[in-house]
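Hi team,

Filling in the usual template for the complex we talked about on Friday. All components are listed, including any nucleic acid strands or ligand strings, so the model treats them as one assembly.

SUBMITTER: L.P.
PURPOSE: interface mapping
COMPONENTS: two
RESIDUES: 1012
SEQUENCES:
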Amino acid sequence: MARAGHRKKRNPATVHQLPFQTVENPYTPVEVLDEEQVEKIVDGALKILSEQGMRFMQAESRKILASAGARVDETEQMVLFDRDMVLEKVALAPSSFGLGARNPAHDLIVGTNKTIFSSVGGPAFCSDLENGRRAGTYDELCDYLKLVQCLNIIHQEGGGAFEAMDLPAESRHLDLYLAQLTLLDKNSQAYALGRERTIDCIEMTAIALGCDRTELRKNPAIMAVINTNSPRQLDIPMSEAVLELARSGQVSCITPFTLAGSMSPVTLAGTLAQQTAEIMAVTALAETAAPGAAVVYGSFSSNVDMQSGEPALGTPEFTKMALASCQIARRLGLPSRTSNTTTSNCVDAQSAYESEMSLWGSLMGHANLINHAAGWLEGGLTASFEKLILDAEMLQMMVKTLEPIKVNDDEIALDAIATVEPGGHHFLTEHTLARYETAFYPTMLSDRKNFEDWREKGSQDTAVRANAIWKKLLLEYEKPAIDVATEEALQQYVAKRKLEIAAQTK
Amino acid sequence: MARAGHRKKRNPATVHQLPFQTVENPYTPVEVLDEEQVEKIVDGALKILSEQGMRFMQAESRKILASAGARVDETEQMVLFDRDMVLEKVALAPSSFGLGARNPAHDLIVGTNKTIFSSVGGPAFCSDLENGRRAGTYDELCDYLKLVQCLNIIHQEGGGAFEAMDLPAESRHLDLYLAQLTLLDKNSQAYALGRERTIDCIEMTAIALGCDRTELRKNPAIMAVINTNSPRQLDIPMSEAVLELARSGQVSCITPFTLAGSMSPVTLAGTLAQQTAEIMAVTALAETAAPGAAVVYGSFSSNVDMQSGEPALGTPEFTKMALASCQIARRLGLPSRTSNTTTSNCVDAQSAYESEMSLWGSLMGHANLINHAAGWLEGGLTASFEKLILDAEMLQMMVKTLEPIKVNDDEIALDAIATVEPGGHHFLTEHTLARYETAFYPTMLSDRKNFEDWREKGSQDTAVRANAIWKKLLLEYEKPAIDVATEEALQQYVAKRKLEIAAQTK
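RESULT (copied from the run log):
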């Protein structure tokens, strides 16, 4: 789409945003477990692995784990782990590492006291206020990715906001990678379903960064989510991806999908133990294949709604398990990942309070990565254009909350207080005038008009205002600089691979 | 309204609620200030009081403070305090105390690690989805109070949800007290504008509790919010209320309304110092008039929107000042009060995320009392029927988040995990079936239907569902038991006082 004509008219003041920034948490993490409880859960996880084991459906994975001393039942595809072996393997994983971006100013660190906000990844549908919920197209996906580039608060693209249903399933990932690597200069997550898709991502990322595989190994730039098939199972495409990522020096974010009462025990401690067992088992695979491989302890533990059997998200149980998961990850020396979730079907109060519950649990727990931090709706089935804006606002508010209060004579402002008479006001003091432009978080989305003004301007609720904001942002989008030869090389790679895939699938 | 006919048909399952319960916070408070910073702010507050002072418009207050050694400028009505005197007076206030209710099961403790949720108090308007925002009537106020009684998560009525505009202003408080003391058996806050209104509350509470003033002094049952006219000023009605409450053994919740950049410096540290100064000054008055008087350190610090000059609420600055205020209150040995606020004009996503910001700051800071915890909308100008339900849901979720995770063999559930094969599910295990009914928070308001079901059932958003819930609850309302003679005595008191007031105002 040729939007160049708009660029000259761009007024940066139209959408208030915070600058792109590293998010660090200066406060002590909230801990919902004491040390003994953390140990009990880790011990439970080790017992699960030594007594029940985990099924690895891929023969190669079983072979690798057997070589490290695991006991393998080939008929059942089950692998049983000694606790010492598991702990030794987990200890090989780094507690923090970098993730490169095409723009070095957008390079990330995963771990320490930093938190990365990643945009929504994986939904089947997209939605916006005008066109409702629907299967999305590649053009719409590109618009979504442009917004992810525009929104400074988002550190990382989440691996494809939704499926581009107008493209063939076999090669859709190539179009996604091309969009990620040309429309954004931020880091993007990979779509790691199987070995070939993972290799395509590695190859294309190397082209985009202008480096070879050796350099990429030294400075990883690719992370993919590896979902176990809870309880206690890893399928073949996921095994392939873990092995390919580990051997290439790239990152697996290992995330069981454990809904208490369904894929895991109805109890939170049982769910946490099972989650930990599955993560440690997959970590053992990665570390055996490539010692020192970077992994992330990914939590997506929530509960089912016991009335309906549907997933329940952004619940108190979700929040507590996010907090607990961060503690367990720290105990194991791994970076932690949580999510921003809601089951709401529209951008309403529920979508906000479930997301806030998710985000507060994540941030107070010091999660290092929050997946789906912006845009997720409808239990993850939909990426919403308006929810993307709502979440970005909530994330910006969180980041300002993590900015410490300054306390010094200038800030305590006794002189300013002395100049204002009792019952007077500080609007026009020198102290106020010197600071008011930057003193407070300048909201992007909130409406503070009085009721009469608000009604006169059309009684716009948050979703309606968010709709106007993403449209404005899309007009403001500027494609980040990219070397012409690099972009052509990426296009050529995609064209070549599409021909290969077409030949394979004939 | 005669709803007796409905009572027999009542189905308690229609609205899922948690039981009435004491809320305790088992986690370590989040601290945004280090010890040195807290000391600097308290020191700043003491400097404000010794160098600039506070204006007490009431002559009696100045006389009382002079008797305690304060320096008084009668022309300017200014009172200057020595720091030692202030600290000695503040040290006389108890760090915790009880607040009685008509139903002893609803008695409250203010302080320790407990948190009280109080319903909205003070708005000019009411609103609901059908009739919009409007001046409310006494009948509507009674409906609102019935809902406050019904909602178990609310510990305390907040002092009148909105003004009953169909009643005369001079005697409206009597009708409010009658409603509070007969429609509810929970503790209610007083409407403490001036001496007479405060005395009326004390007298009527004594009648309702069947006790005399001596007993009431021993077991306080009345708390009123005392707002300073920031900066550094206390008006006559508020002085009268503080003195009457202190001398009667009742409680002042001293709360400056300090919007950074308007009623206080544009800096957070300056706002906190001024807030602390004003609270300590009013505390010194209460403790001089009645040593040992119970007071609460009330924070309502937020910021103005520097673009519009309107209040900005539920902001990152609000959240941080709530957290900091709880720290300062603990340093001074006083219970702390915060609020649940939003500037939104409707029950939308903004109303939820600003309230969540307020509530998380309050709860993670260990606030002992959250005023306006349920029902507040539109910067406090409106009490909303739907927001009441939305907030009650959010409070319930918070309370469940504060419930510690149990970790023991039964909860880690290794046996249950062993019975479920890899890739299987836990729906029907014995372990699940024995626990599923109580394992998770049973939502009152959230919708977890899949998109198609949700659309088919009318695409109801949170506000629409909240509307249905308050109507159901109102049908379920049962007037709590009250002795006939007590109710008659209350009615007679109101009738007598109305005649007196009518005579005065002729």
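MY TAKE: Chain B touches chain A through 127 residues (CB under 8 Å). The first strand of chain B starts at residue 23 and ends at 24.

Thanks, L.
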